[in-house]
Amino acid sequence: MTIGEFSELTGISCSALRYYEDKGLINVERDAGNRRIYCDKDVEWVKFLQRLKDTGMPLKEMKHYSDLRYQGDSTISERLEILEKHEIYVEKQRRLWEEYSENLKSKILWYKKQL
Question: I want to staple 38 with a disulfide (CB 3.0 to 4.6 A). Which of 6, 52, 59, 88 is the partner?
């Protein structure tokens, strides 16, 4: 499928897809005219990359993970370690946001009582 079709299917902009390719996060096949050709297996991969980005994984770490993924199954243990480390970070961030949310709720309640 073309980059436009792929963008529509994944919900990731064409410019983001080109950026991911430029940074080496995705390897995209090309046709004889040098046009990108995305396949079904690329869908879940770029969606996963987007989730890593959305959860705050640094680009450098995403690149390292991607490089390992393209090296194959011999890197599974290292990829697992990266994801476990990132999950700890995400959990810490979740707890912080929960604390922020509770603080906001408390302040909102205080204001409501003042009215």
Answer: 6
Dihedrals φ, ψ of 95, to 5°? Answer: -65, -40
Are 61 and 86 a contacting pair, CB within 8 Å?
yes
The CATH architecture to which 3-114 belongs is Orthogonal Bundle (1.10)
E strands, 29-114, are 29-30, 36-37
- Ramachandran region of residue 76, left (φ > 0), alpha (ψ -120 to 50) or beta? alpha
1 pLDDT tier (thresholds 50, 70, 90): confident
Q: Parse the chain into domains and list their residue ranges.
A: 3-114
Please tell me the predicted confidence (pLDDT) of residue 17.
Answer: 92
What is the CB neighbour count within 10 angstroms for residue 62? 20
Q: Which amino acid is at 73?
A: D
pLDDT attached to residue 40: 87
Amino acid type, 34: N
| Closest to 79 (Cα-Cα) out of 50, 56, 48 | 48
